């Protein structure tokens, strides 16, 4: 079935402000604030919560008819004042929506006006503004825009410190915890941004919290300009849109761009870089993790070799997963993304120069109808991506391995590892088990050893 | 009921809730936080704007129109005109179920259609793209109907979705295309969207098909969206009782049923807030009376069935209804007898919806539990105080912006199903025709009623009341559970259900038992277990 191209059917992307809200949740004592209708805050909250199973408060300037006509300045100022009074936040992360962007509210000007009016009365939180109109890009663009805006607002000039900025991309809370562990083990001070490992995956509250504990403190982000290096996990983000790009340009902090470290080769690059930066070998623990992973590859290779996969999700995740799948001999017959940076194919060719000869198809800016059409022709052994592929998986009887965001039809998406040797190990085990389960279910014999 | 239940001093609770707010906000919130007295029914400020920066659980007009009312329809292609987020977030999130008659029958519920507006559409207008999207949907599915939903930027850039719909309807010929101006900034909550949806369905669908249908007792079920299969259970009961369902609005409905719905002889309303406009408009235009019912709770289901039988006034029907109740009730009773000793005396709080916070209290009563505080997210004063306050509700600027259809009796199709005298007689028998008494008359004295409860206030209430269960939605769920109190989702049912009718009641009892008596809560130390809280607010709960 050839399907129409003007409209989107079953989108493979979420909207820009969602990513910004998540990123702001990774700053300590910060309340995300959407400048627009309250519905955006409500929808985005319910969506993030369905994945993380954690509360997330997002304030809003609650636009109404006349704010839509005359501008949202008044509502934004009232909103900021009320959030400040109730939550006493250190930071308010303000992201715009399609509504405030369409009417052209000048948010920086409104914030200056607000600061001038209330400076002497109300305690003044730090206000970060990210421009995130939902008619541009997708959730991942909002995520990066918020991270960059945070650094632009907070980073200060100063003497170089023994410090590395780590911009991890939109990874899981479990991945963030793993990164922190790695830096601790290397004894390398690190400014991780964002860090929602606790705010989006925390424990019960022994006491009341207006804002959940955790996140990177504003004071730590202020040091970002003094760091010796920035590491960012991305394959497609332009320097002009990246926090590391800004720090390099404004403060001369060298920017090290790595793909999301999934698979041995890409993880090696990350650990090699840490060795270079610290001038010391990686701790034995990670050698062990790597050795176990290589051993597992050897043990499990027969199950996964040449299995055909359709891969979808954010572009950076797709690039990293493609590298990993090729490493274990699997065949990503389609690498698809709802994102549209224009770089997906080029980045994949850099990883796999004979991509086309190998029969790997690359498509960006697609929706699930496009992917389903492809699936009917490509007949993959399984799908790898987020929960939104489930309908297609069920309809076409193709197993789905859930990774990334959103995962709302399986438990524990926030605790899934994806990156480094540990994350790769978990992914590899899950992939092998998906194959085994499929074979076991399909067998008429009822094998008990596989 | 009131005498045996001891509540914390409600006026102190009220003070606690508002003291953190700036003076102006505190003054406004105080009007929405009310100590109940079922005898005199105090006024509750409702359906007023949420103050910016006070984190609300409310949604937007689009959510009410597309998400709630039109979302559950099966064979209308619902296209969202706007950037991608709005369509994505309403993509099957409400768990509306539907049952096409065959695999060949259309079912568009699993789809998420969007014009996915880009910057150039914002700058140069999106009508052309919208028309293309309609054409593509038509070419692909040949649906009977296509509905267009406007999101925030659409109204601002001046796209005329109605003109585009008319043009495409004419062009396509055999497809009913219509639009909704349900931009997110209209009105104060999703409630505005319900009204807009009612108007659109009434204008563009109801009355298009005059085929008389079979059946002696024909009715429509309004305001039932078939979350978790609720409508299926009600359909089962109707069928058993010999009632013919012409159309539901809108769970498990079809275009054909909705277009033919004016051939029914009674409208029963489940969710008053979201659909009462439809009841009134159909009354005026076609002469079909409406009656408030509730199929949430076994006793309420029985009561509603009896009311319907009384309305039709047929002895055979009355006998059949009694037979159905007699057959269903023992199964329910057996489960209640088993569970009640474990739930009796426990307390609940409900802050949800525009009707659910009222109706689910019946299920808790059946479980021997007391509702200590309740409120709606997006209801109006009549849902709290009863429809008799309607003439006194001040129409503010936000409500004025929502079109009020001028409806008159249809010259050909108006046919009053009951004469004035018959209606009077029914009223004397206790049937409330075209009326709804609201939530507060049913709640105990000194229970607390809070409209549009904020995130901050919900935490405060839990701290003060320490309820055994809190009922709301996914946004509240995990913060409440962090304090060691189980939260029952009454939008998605925590992925369970159905909860309506007799079988649904049993499902609910079991689910609540599993939640309130679960050993995991013993592992979570609630914040109030740590330090001595204000003794003045401490209280014990005793139920009769």
UniProtKB/TrEMBL annotation, chain A:
Give the enzyme class: oxidoreductase
Give any GO molecular function from the UniProt entry. Answer: nitrogenase activity
Q: Does the keyword Oxidoreductase apply?
A: yes
Provide the E.C. number(s) assigned to this enzyme.
1.18.6.1
InterPro entries listed in its UniProt record: ChlB/BchB/BchZ, Nase/OxRdtase_comp1, Nase_comp1_CS
Pfam families xrefs: Oxidored_nitro
**What's in the keyword line of the UniProt record?**
Nitrogen fixation, Oxidoreductase
Keyword hit for Oxidoreductase: yes
- The record places domain Nitrogenase/oxidoreductase component at 15-435
- Superkingdom as given in the UniProt entry: Bacteria
Name the family: Belongs to the NifD/NifK/NifE/NifN family.
**Could you tell me which PANTHER family the record lists for this protein?**
LIGHT-INDEPENDENT PROTOCHLOROPHYLLIDE REDUCTASE SUBUNIT B (PTHR33712:SF7)
Q: What is this protein called?
A: Nitrogenase
Q: Which organism is it from?
A: Chlorobium ferrooxidans DSM 13031
Automatic annotation (TrEMBL), chain B:
User: What's in the keyword line of the UniProt record?
Assistant: ATP-binding, Iron, Iron-sulfur, Metal-binding, Molybdenum, Nitrogen fixation, Nucleotide-binding, Oxidoreductase
Q: Does the keyword DNA-binding apply?
A: no
Database matches in InterPro entries: Nase/OxRdtase_comp1 (IPR000510), Nase_comp1_asu (IPR010143), Nase_comp1_CS (IPR000318), Nase_Mo-Fe_asu (IPR005972)
Major enzyme class? oxidoreductase
Under Gene Ontology molecular function, one entry of this record is: nitrogenase activity
GO CC terms of this entry: molybdenum-iron nitrogenase complex
Q: Which domain of life is it from?
A: Bacteria
Q: In the Enzyme Commission scheme, what number(s) does this protein have?
A: 1.18.6.1
Q: Please write the reaction equations for the catalytic activity of this protein.
A: N2 + 8 reduced [2Fe-2S]-[ferredoxin] + 16 ATP + 16 H2O = H2 + 8 oxidized [2Fe-2S]-[ferredoxin] + 2 NH4(+) + 16 ADP + 16 phosphate + 6 H(+)
- Subunit details: Tetramer of two alpha and two beta chains. Forms complex with the iron protein (nitrogenase component 2).
- Give the family per the record: Belongs to the NifD/NifK/NifE/NifN family.
* Protein name per the record: Nitrogenase molybdenum-iron protein alpha chain
């Amino acid at each position: 079935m050839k399907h129409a191209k003007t409209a989107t059917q079953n989108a493979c992307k979420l909207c820009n402000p969602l990513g910004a809200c998540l990123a702001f949740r990774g700053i300590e004592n910060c309340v995300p604030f959407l400048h627009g209708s309250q519905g955006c805050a409500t929808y985005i909250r319910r969506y993030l919560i369905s994945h993380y199973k954690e509360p997330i408060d997002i304030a809003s300037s609650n636009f109404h008819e006349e704010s839509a006509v005359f501008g949202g300045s008044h509502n934004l100022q009232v909103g900021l004042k009320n959030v400040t009074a109730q939550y006493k936040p250190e930071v308010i992360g303000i992201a715009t929506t399609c509504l405030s962007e369409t009417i052209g509210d000048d948010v920086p000007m409104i914030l200056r006006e607000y600061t001038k009016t209330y400076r002497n009365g109300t305690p003044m939180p730090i206000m970060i503004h990210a421009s995130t109109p939902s008619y541009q890009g997708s959730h991942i663009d909002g995520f990066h825009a918020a991270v960059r805006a945070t650094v632009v607002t907070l980073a200060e000039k100063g003497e170089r410190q023994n410090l590395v900025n780590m911009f991890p991309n939109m990874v899981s809370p479990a991945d963030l915890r793993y990164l922190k562990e790695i830096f601790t083990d290397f004894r390398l001070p690190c400014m991780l941004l964002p860090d929602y490992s606790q705010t989006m995956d925390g424990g019960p509250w022994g006491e009341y919290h207006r804002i959940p504990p955790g996140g990177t403190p504003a004071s730590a982000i202020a040091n970002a300009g003094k760091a010796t290096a920035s590491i960012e996990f991305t394959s497609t983000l332009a320097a002009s849109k990246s926090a590391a790009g800004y720090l390099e340009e404004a403060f001369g902090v060298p920017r090290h761009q790595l793909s999301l470290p999934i698979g041995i080769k890409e993880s090696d690059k990350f650990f090699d870089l840490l060795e270079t930066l610290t001038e010391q070998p990686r701790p034995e623990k990670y050698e062990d993790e790597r050795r176990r992973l290589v051993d597992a590859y050897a043990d499990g290779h027969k199950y996964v070799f040449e299995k055909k996969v359709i891969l979808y999700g954010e572009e950076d995740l797709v690039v990293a997963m493609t590298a990993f799948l090729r490493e274990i001999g699997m065949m990503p017959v389609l690498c698809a993304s709802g994102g549209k940076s224009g770089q997906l194919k080029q980045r994949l060719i850099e990883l796999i120069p004979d991509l086309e000869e190998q029969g790997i198809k690359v498509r960006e800016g697609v929706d699930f109808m496009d992917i389903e059409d492809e699936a009917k022709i490509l007949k993959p052994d399984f799908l790898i991506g987020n929960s939104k592929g489930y309908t297609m998986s069920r309809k076409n009887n193709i197993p789905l391995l859930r990774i990334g965001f959103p995962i709302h039809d399986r438990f524990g998406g926030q605790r899934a590892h994806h990156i480094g040797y540990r994350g790769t190990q978990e992914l590899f085990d899950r992939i092998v088990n998906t194959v085994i389960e499929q074979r076991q279910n399909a067998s008429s014999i009822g094998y008990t050893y596989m | 009921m009131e005498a045996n239940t001891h509540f914390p001093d409600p006026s102190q609770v009220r003070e606690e809730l508002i003291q953190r707010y700036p003076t102006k906000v505190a003054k406004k919130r105080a009007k929405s936080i009310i100590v109940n007295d079922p005898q005199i029914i105090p006024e509750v400020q409702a359906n007023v704007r949420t103050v910016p920066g006070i984190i609300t659980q409310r949604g937007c007009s689009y959510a009410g129109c597309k998400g709630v009312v039109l979302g559950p329809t099966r064979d209308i292609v619902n296209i969202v005109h706007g950037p991608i987020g709005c369509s994505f977030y309403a993509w099957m999130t409400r768990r509306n179920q539907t049952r096409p008659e065959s695999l060949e029958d259309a079912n568009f519920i699993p789809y998420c259609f969007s014009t996915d507006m880009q910057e150039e559409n914002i700058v140069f207008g999106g009508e052309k793209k919208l028309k293309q999207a309609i054409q593509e949907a038509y070419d692909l599915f040949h649906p009977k109907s296509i509905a267009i939903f406007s999101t925030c930027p659409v109204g601002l850039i001046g796209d005329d979705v109605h003109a585009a719909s008319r043009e495409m309807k004419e062009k396509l010929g055999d497809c009913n295309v219509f639009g909704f101006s349900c931009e997110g900034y209209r009105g104060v909550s999703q409630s505005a969207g319900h009204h807009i949806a009612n108007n659109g369905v009434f204008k563009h669908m109801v009355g298009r098909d005059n085929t008389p249908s079979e059946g002696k007792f024909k009715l429509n079920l309004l305001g039932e969206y078939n979350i978790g299969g609720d409508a299926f259970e009600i359909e089962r009961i109707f069928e058993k009782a010999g009632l013919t369902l012409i159309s539901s609005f809108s769970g498990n409905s079809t275009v054909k049923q909705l277009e033919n719905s004016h051939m029914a002889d009674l409208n029963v309303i489940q969710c008053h807030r979201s659909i009462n406009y439809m009841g009134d408009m159909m009354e005026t235009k076609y002469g079909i009376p409406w009656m408030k019912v509730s199929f949430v709770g076994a006793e309420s289901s029985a009561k509603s069935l009896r009311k319907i039988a009384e309305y039709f006034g047929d002895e055979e029907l009355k006998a059949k209804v009694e037979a159905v109740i007699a057959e269903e009730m023992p199964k329910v009773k057996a489960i209640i007898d088993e569970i009640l000793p474990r739930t009796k005396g426990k307390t609940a709080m409900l802050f949800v919806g525009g009707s659910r916070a009222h109706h689910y209290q019946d299920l808790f009563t059946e479980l021997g539990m007391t509702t200590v505080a309740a409120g709606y997210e997006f209801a109006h004063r009549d849902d709290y105080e009863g429809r008799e306050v309607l003439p006194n509700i001040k129409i503010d600027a936000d409500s004025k912006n929502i079109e009020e259809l001028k409806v008159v009796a249809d010259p050909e199709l108006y046919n009053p199903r009951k004469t004035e005298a018959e209606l009077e007689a029914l009223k004397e028998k206790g049937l409330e025709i075209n009326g709804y008494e609201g939530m507060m008359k049913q709640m105990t004295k000194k229970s607390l009623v809070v409209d549009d409860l904020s995130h901050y206030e919900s935490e405060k209430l839990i701290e003060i009341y320490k309820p055994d269960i809190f009922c709301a939605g996914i946004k509240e769920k995990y913060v409440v559970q962090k304090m060691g109190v189980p939260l029952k989702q009454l939008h998605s049912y925590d992925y369970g259900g159905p909860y309506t009718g007799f079988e649904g009641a049993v499902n609910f009892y079991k689910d609540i038992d599993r939640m309130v008596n679960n050993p995991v809560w013993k592992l979570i130390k609630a914040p109030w277990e740590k330090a001595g809280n204000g003794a003045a607010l401490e209280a014990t709960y005793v139920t009769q």
